[in-house]
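Researcher: Let's try something more involved. This one mixes different molecule types, so please make sure each is placed in the same coordinate frame as the others.
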Amino acid sequence: MPNLTRAATIILGKELRTEFRTRELLSTTIVFVLMVVVLFSFTFDPSAAESRRFGPGLLWIAFLFAGSLMLHPSFMREQANDTLAGLRLAPIEPFAILTGKILANFLFLLLAELLLLPVFAVLYDVRLTPVQSRLLPVMLVLILGTLGLTTVGTVFSAVASQARMRELLLPLLLLPVLTPVLIASAEATSGLLADPPELPRTWLAFLVAFDVVFLTATWLFGEYLLEE
Amino acid sequence: MKPNWITTLIVAALIGIAGYAALFLAPTERTMGLIQRIFYFHVPSAWAGFVAFFITFIASVAYLLRRAPKWDWLAVSSAEVGVAFFTVVLVTGPIWAKPVWGIWWTWDARLTSTFVLWVLYLSYLLLRTLVTDAERRAVVSAVFGIFAFLDVPLVYMSIRWWRTQHPQPVIAGGSGSGLDPQMWRVFLTCWAALLGVLIVLLRQRYQLESLRHTVEEMTVEAERRNADRERIPSTQAVR
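Model: All components are placed in one shared frame. Result:
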């Protein structure tokens, strides 16, 4: 176990270094989500009350689409110079490689979401205060939902990287599997942003269950994806 | 590789009996009338589809643990048959819904989750067509098959809490639910018949997959020999 943690931390460090040298993923994700949010108001022209009602769902749709696009390079980057072979040869558990990548993607997406949340609140006239009963629980939903999204997404990125038409395939594989995350996160967020805010315990428990199920599945079966 | 005439005949007879039972032996439902008889093929198809997806899940796990190609053949065959059954469910559903609910489709819990389930396994089949190497295909689709199956209960739970308009489970759905004993008998006959169809289709599809595998191996072998043959004259020409 200490070996696993150490190896995963090293992989995480490598991913973070690669990303922060270019900041490609973060910038494209943020711009993409902004585009979706703006395009939505063009097509539906919502009134103030409507935008508050549809806002949380729209936000999660945008995060989900952004996730299904940004997770794609996770394994594709390794193919350009066949660096995955190097990772495979390293004397570490394959699960550590996946864990490091999941954590890295989780941090990227979460960071993008945290930067976008205030912008969204301004554009859609959503109140994030009081901090205790709104902002903090919303952040908990973001953390749990994003963890589920990136866990499945990273594994499917490894799946799609071995197929043709990878760019198209990843969203196709990912979106149906992530339906429960979308519903739970959107419902939980709209409960918290409603007046008065309501803590959605069932949905939070559901998100925890989703994360546990798929982290366990990744731990049990993920390593097969990294074989030569 | 004998054609499974006997099984096919038995299942064909069973389907005939099931159709007769559903149309003539089952009592007419009080409020919905004759259209309710579609129930005897709608619901058993869904149950048979679930059985098929469960087989895909078991075969996927077995493939990852044992690495015998036959498990992969079983997984893909079963997924395809399951998708066929759920297509039947998604077609018979609206036919039943239109006269009873007045609409073809509604975003109710059961309909939505069945639709998601169908899309899940469509993308499983799609994934398989996009991976060239047989062994890689088997591994990645096994992992996806496992993830998809684990997702099924989560999809159902989340959509159920989200909203529901479908009749509460009629079979084993708590108080006030329940089926007339005669309806039960017809229902079980239909389910048995459709499980028979499942078995026939599965066997046929499995044999097809194993034939494809043989063809693939022979093609690779033929190409290798061709390449060898071409190399020899060219070296002679250099001399």
